[in-house]
Amino acid sequence: MNSIVGYFNKPVLKVSLLFGLATGIFVFLFFVGLYLVGTNPLGGVRNLDLGVYAILIFSGLRYYRKNYGNGLLHLWEALTMGYVITCVAAIVNGWLIYLFVTYIDPSVFTDYITNALDVLTQGRKAQTAYLSDKEFLDLYEKVKSNKPSILISNEISQRLVMAIIPILVISLILRKQDYSVLQNNKP
């Protein structure tokens, strides 16, 4: 048991998990804010939450560099922390959204499916170049039969892909290494 506790007591993982949890909660609050103002919270405007991800990833890396890294942050630490923060946040946010559309307001999910089917139908002429009628109908039925649990996997996959560039840029900005070990210090 001590080995498991010791594993999770590493600063890189501990800070990443805490900032990931905070990011997931803040992004869910963004989702709820969109819901409360009457905007479709599962629509395209929701991609603005990537800014929340970027701010909290930046904050987490800066916090780690200041409090645990003695002012230093290796690129591998920054990239690892950025991806862990994103993954944990996406899991937390995905589950919170799933619980919201399952228990609080299922109409959010039905609107999401309706909008997806409308987009699919409106783009039918463009899709005739690469989809046969049978393939289109199969895709249509697949989208139509989606359950709210699809939101969890969508959130994780979309956020991990969308966050690649911001994580890399933030990591490169905040990285600071001790280069004195590379200098020849012979007496």
Question: Can you give a write-up of this model?
Answer:
The chain has 2 domains: 10-104 and 149-177, no CATH class; 107-147. It has 9 helices and no strands. It has helices at 2-8, 11-36, 50-67, 75-104, 107-122, 124-127, 133-144, 150-162, 164-174.
List its salient traits:
mainly alpha, 9 helices, about 190 residues, 2 domains
Describe the SSE topology.
Layout: H1 2-8, H2 11-36, H3 50-67, H4 75-104, H5 107-122, H6 124-127, H7 133-144, H8 150-162, H9 164-174
Helix pairs in contact: 2-3, 2-4, 3-4, 3-9, 4-8, 4-9
A few lines on this structure:
By secondary structure, the protein is an all-alpha fold. The chain has helices at residues 2-8, 11-36, 50-67, 75-104, 107-122, 124-127, 133-144, 150-162, 164-174. The model has no long low-confidence stretch (mean pLDDT 89).
Unreliable spans are none
pLDDT averaged residue by residue: 89
Rg (C-alpha, Å): 21 Å
Most strands sheet: none
H/E element order:
HHHHHHHHH
Q: Ends: how far apart?
A: 48 Å
The number of distinct β-strands equals 0
Shape: elongated
- Helix percent reads over 70%
Annotation field: number of helices? 9
Q: How much of the residues is beta strand, in percent?
A: under 5%
